[in-house]
Structure formats: structure tokens, C-alpha cells
Design goal:
128 residues; alpha+beta; S16 Ribosomal Protein, Chain: A; five-stranded mixed sheet; 4 helices
């Protein structure tokens, strides 16, 4: 099931407002949503945008794909930045918690190269 975060239109004719909803991508625009995560009112002065950040981040982590309009709303609200910072900090923690790999393999290669170089020079010198 492909889940998207998109806008659902509500309100009277000529006076729209939109809900930010998590919905199956195959459902029509005003279909039954899985979850409602915010409201967007473009006709208010100034424009009103209310988003539940915890729900939005939760759904983005679960793989919900935002529409282009919802993505721009999330950018303005700073939600995508928070999501990126959370994922980046988790990646850093994983790197720090892993045990360092001993450098035995690279040391072995370095000693082999040192041993090989005199042999090559000595064989070149003998051929001259």
C-alpha cells in the first residue's frame, strides 16, 4: 500500500481550507484518510498553517510520501530539517557505537609492499 501525505479540500464554495492527511494514494481527493496531521487555511491573512510535527515525522519515517505542496509546507515549518537531523544523529550514534576494526589487514599489505619493492629493483639491476 502506497501511503501519501496530501491536502484534502474542505469548506464552502469559494472559501476553501485544506487538511493535511495521510491517505492511501489510490483513494480519491476527499476519501477517508488514515490520519489527519494538520490544517492549511490559505485565505486567512496571514495564511494559517497548523501541523502536528510528531505525527508528520512519524509518518515520514514510516515511508509516507508528501505531495509537492505538502513538502513545501513541511519545509516552511522546519519539519523536514528536524527529520533530517534526527536521522543524521542516529547515523552518527551507530558509527560511534561500532567497535573500531583493527588495522591488521592494512599493516599486512604495507609489509608485503615493502618486501616486494627490493625484489623488483634487484631483478631489474641484475638484468642491466
Amino acid at each position: 500500500m502506497s501511503v501519501k501525505i496530501r491536502l484534502t479540500r474542505k469548506g464552502k464554495k469559494g472559501v476553501p481550507y485544506y487538511r493535511l492527511v495521510v491517505i492511501d494514494s489510490r483513494v480519491r481527493r476527499e476519501g477517508l484518510p488514515i490520519d489527519t496531521i494538520g490544517v492549511y487555511q490559505p485565505l486567512h491573512n496571514p495564511v494559517t498553517i497548523k501541523v502536528d510535527e510528531e505525527k508528520a515525522i512519524k509518518w515520514l519515517k514510516e515511508g509516507a510520501i508528501p505531495s509537492t505542496t505538502v513538502r513545501s509546507i513541511f519545509k516552511k515549518q522546519g519539519i523536514l530539517k528536524k527529520l533530517h537531523e534526527e536521522q543524521f544523529s542516529q547515523a552518527k550514534k551507530k558509527v560511534k557505537t561500532e567497535k573500531p576494526v583493527p588495522d591488521i589487514f592494512n599493516q599486512g599489505i604495507a609489509t608485503e609492499k615493502q618486501e616486494e619493492t627490493p625484489d623488483i629493483k634487484s631483478s631489474e639491476e641484475s638484468s642491466n
